[in-house]
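[Q] Does anyone have a clean structure-token version of this?
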Amino acid sequence: MRIISGRFKGRKIAEPKSRYTRPLKDLTKESIFNILQHSNLIDFSFEKSDILDLFSGVGSFGLECISRGARNVVFCENYPETLKILKKNIYNLNCDKKAQIVTENIFEIKNLNKLQKKFEVIFLDPPYKEKKLTNLLNEIISLKLLKKNGLIILHRHKKDKELYPKKFEILKIKTYGISKIIFGIVSQ
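[A] Here you go.
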């Protein structure tokens, strides 16, 4: 795995050897960032943006955001083996001043409440089998963690049939292999 563009372009990211972590594939990541930068549906700039990377794994998405100019990324990961690799990747890229790591279980409401800031992009990449995603989206919406005109990006299995909250308005869905990426906003 590598950083695709920006300040750290071409730099390697350490990957897990565990089967419990599913890293975001480079092709899928590149497609997400192409849509963020070139889609007519989405008006987004990395410059000085705050990003929330939920279920961040080894940090592939968030580190790419920092490389492209994000002001700050909050990484949320609580699997111990993956957390070690995430910390190593942040250290190796020397971007710890732009990174914050939350290690608590994000499904507990009090842990989302601790964030106390709003984000331009919230990226959720939970395990494909995770069934509490709708509850988490409802909490994100009720806590108003997304800035006005902010974007939520979900990485799910292409056969996922989860019902999303009514206020989550889907802008675009793209399928890559067994994955689908859902771009959405919170309607007012």
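[Q] Thanks! Anything notable?
[A] The mean pLDDT is 89.
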